[in-house]
Amino acid sequence: MLYQPNHLFWFMQIFLNLLLFVPFGFLLPIVSERLRNSMLTVFTGVLFSAGIETMQYITGRGLTEIDDVINNTAGVMFGYIAFAIAVYFYKRRMFARFSSI
User: Fold this and answer.
1) Which residues of 37-74 are buried (b: 16+ CB within 10 A; e: fewer)?
2) Domain boundaries defined on the chain
C-alpha cells in the first residue's frame, strides 16, 4: 500500500512538513531565553505555521491545509524535545566535569 505512488506522495508530504519545522523548535529556545518554555515555543511555531498557510491562501500559491499546521506543530514539538534532551546531556556532562575536580 505504501509503495503506490499516491501513498508515497502523501507520506513524503507529512514527513517533510515535520522535518521542516524541527530546526524551528530546536533553535528558538537557543536564540531566546523567553522561548525556553515548551508551550511558548510550540505556540510560536503554531503562529508561524498558520501565518505561512494564511499567506498561501491569500496569494493562491500552494495548498492551504490545516494538516500542514498540525504537522508543522508536531515538528516544532519534536525539535523542542531534541533541544531538551541536548540540554539535559550537556548539563549532565558539565556537572560530571566539575564534580570530579
Assistant:
1) ebeebbebbeebbeebbeeeeeeeeeebeeebbebbbb
2) 5-99
96 by Cβ neighbours in 10 Å (0-12 / 13-18 / 19+) ranks as exposed
Q: What is the pLDDT of residues 17-56, one digit of tens each?
A: 999 999 999 999 999 998 899 999 999 999 999 999 999 9
In terms of Cα–Cα distance, which of 65, 68, 90, 80 is closest to 22? 80
Phi first, then psi, for residue 3 (nearest 5°) are -85, -10
pTM: 0.84
